[in-house]
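Hi U.,

Before I forget, here's the chain from the pilot set. I'm dumping it here mostly so it's searchable later in email.
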Amino acid sequence: MAAVLTALLGPNTAIQTSKLNTKAPGGGAAAEWHQDWAFYPHTNDDMLAFGLMLEDVDAANGPLQVIPGSHKGPVLAHTNADGVFCGAVDPDDPDFHHDRAVTLTGKAGSMTVHHARTLHGSAPNVSDRNWLICFFECRAAHAWPFLGSGSYLKLSGGSQQALWDHHQASVITSRLTPVPRCEEVPVRLPLPPAPDPGSIFKTQKTGGARSMFDARACSPMPAK
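Structure:
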């Protein structure tokens, strides 16, 4: 993994976070379509997510789906109808091209790698087997988190709501916007936060994300 990481990002890298994503047999929750970059924008997008499959993954147990090339496109809005960050894109967004998605399957021990701006999601687990993947989200050491992202808050020890309230109170004219002006890379801050931002599943549920997988049949995409 380190060899792949340094080949893609250069010699100086750091871990952003690691997490074990699980889906129980017979209906483990979907991860709605999103871009990791929406959760933790940085000063540059030299950021990757490595997914290590701990169990066999096939079309039935909710595999990861990605849209190739989407990391070169826009950062889509991840907000609900009220403008609250919900951690998922709107299925009707014209820049969301679901018909281009491919499915990533493999045996236990296989690894996926996707860019932080890649659109991806995964359907519910409808099989009789677990879905277990360990994600390592990594960055080049020269990428630093923006104020307002979950990454910054882990460093500062604060809360997203307290941060949002503070900046709301600091407005002089008009209103606060979670879309800053940046150069080179598109950025949206994940603010105002969902009621419970404890995980992507809680963010999407409490933020009222519209489900791509409820709106359409969960038929598996062709495996790649």
